[in-house]
Amino acid sequence: MTERNGPAKLKDVAEAAGVSISTVSRVFSNPERLSPATVQHVREVAQRLRYAPNVVARALITGVAANIGLVVPDITNPYMTRLLKAAQGRSRASNVGLLVADTDDSAEIERQVAEQLARQARGLILCAPRMSASHIRDLASMVPLVIINRVVDGVPAVYTDSRQALREFVDELVGLGHRRFAYLPGPTRSWANRQRQQAIGQRAARHGAELVVLEPTAATYEDGIGAASAVADAGVTAVLAFDDVLASGLMEGLRRAGLTVPGDVSVVGHDDVLAELTRPGLATVRAQAERVGRLAAERLLDPDGEVERTESMAIHAETVRRDSIAPPSTRHVSS
C-alpha cells in the first residue's frame, strides 16, 4: 500500500481490508447487518491504520444528524439509568451520539426539551412521556420518534407489559391468605401507573379481595417512607408498589413504625432494579429496562429491523419472588 499523508480515510480501510467502501461504512453505522467476522476484521484493520470514523462529517454529507435524543422524567431513578445505558450502548455501536434530557417529571419541560432536541437530532426517544398525545404526534411529524412505556396511536412504542406478572402476584398473595391489599401509586400522569393499577384492581376483584388505592406519589424513596403511616392506617396485609424505589422506601418507613416485612405487611415492587439491595429481598416485577432501552434505540437506528414489524412492541415482564411476601400474620387473619 502506498504511503499516506494525513489520517487514514474510509477508502484506505476498505483497500487494506479487501472490502468495499460501503461495507466499511456499515461496520461503523449498522454493524448488525454484517457478519461478526467481517465486523471484527474491518475494525482490526481500522485500528491498525488508526482510522477514526467522523460522525460529524458523515452527518454533513448525508444530511442526517449524528445524534439521537433521549428524554426521561427522572434520570436519578435506577430504572432510567439502566435504560439509558442500554440505549447508549446500542447507539455507540453505530457511532451515533446520545443526547439526554431530564424533565423533572414536568410535561411542560418535557415538551420544551423534546422540541429543542428535535431540531438537532436524527431521532427522539421519549421515556414514559407526560405530555399530551397530540403533542407527541406533533413531534412525530417533525422527527422520527419512539415512545417507551406509553402507547399513542400512530407512534411506534416499546413498552413493558407487566399486567400478567402483576396478576400472578395477586394470585399468589390471595393463595397465601391475603384479602385486603393496597396499591401504592406513582405519578398520576404516568400511563404505566394507570395500567398497573387497573391490572391489580381487576385481579383482586376477581378473587373477591379488597384493593385500597393510596394517594399518588412522585415515586421517590421519601414518598415510600411517608406512605408507611397510610399503609398502617388502611389495615392492609400486602402492598403492591408502583416501582422498587417506592417499595424500598415503604419498607424503611414500616421499619421505623415498628412493623415488619413480611411479618406484618407483605411488599411487592416493580422493575427489579433495587430488589437485591433490600432486606428482606424484595419480590418484584422484572421490567427488563435494558432490553427496552436497546430496542427503542434500535428502532431509530435500524428502522427495518426487529421493532419495525409492529408499531408497538410489548416486552413481557417476569415475576421475581423473594422474601418480602408471606402469609398474613394470625392477628390479621383472626380479625
Verbal overview:
The protein is α/β, with parallel strands linked by helices and about 325 residues long. The chain folds into 3 domains: about 10-55, no CATH class; about 65-160 and about 290-315, Response regulator (Rossmann fold), CATH 3.40.50; about 160-285 and about 320-335, Rossmann fold, CATH 3.40.50.2300. The chain contains 14 helices and 12 strands. The chain has helices at about 10-15, 20-25, 35-50, 55-60, 80-95, 105-120, 135-140, 165-175, 190-205, 220-225, 230-235, 245-255, 290-300, 330-335; strands at about 65-70, 95-100, 125, 145-150, 155-160, 180-185, 210-215, 240, 265-270, 285, 310-315, 320. α7 (about 135-140) links the parallel β3 and β4 (about 145-150). α1 crosses α2 (about 20-25), α1 crosses α3 and α5 (about 80-95) runs parallel beside α13 (about 290-300). It holds the Pfam family LacI. It comes from Myceligenerans pegani. This is LacI family DNA-binding transcriptional regulator. InterPro entries: HTH_LacI, LacI/GalR-like_sensor, Lambda_DNA-bd_dom_sf, Peripla_BP_I.
Describe, in short, the structure shown.
By secondary structure, the chain is of the alpha/beta class. It is 44% helix and 16% strand.
Topology:
Blueprint: H1 10-17, H2 21-27, H3 36-48, H4 55-62, E1 67-72, H5 78-93, E2 97-102, H6 107-118, E3 124-127, H7 133-142, E4 145-148, E5 157-161, H8 163-176, E6 180-184, H9 191-206, E7 210-213, H10 221-226, H11 228-234, E8 238-241, H12 244-256, E9 266-268, E10 284-286, H13 289-301, E11 312-316, E12 318-320, H14 330-334
Parallel strand pairs: 1-2, 1-3, 3-4, 4-5, 5-11, 6-7, 6-8, 8-9
Antiparallel strand pairs: 10-12
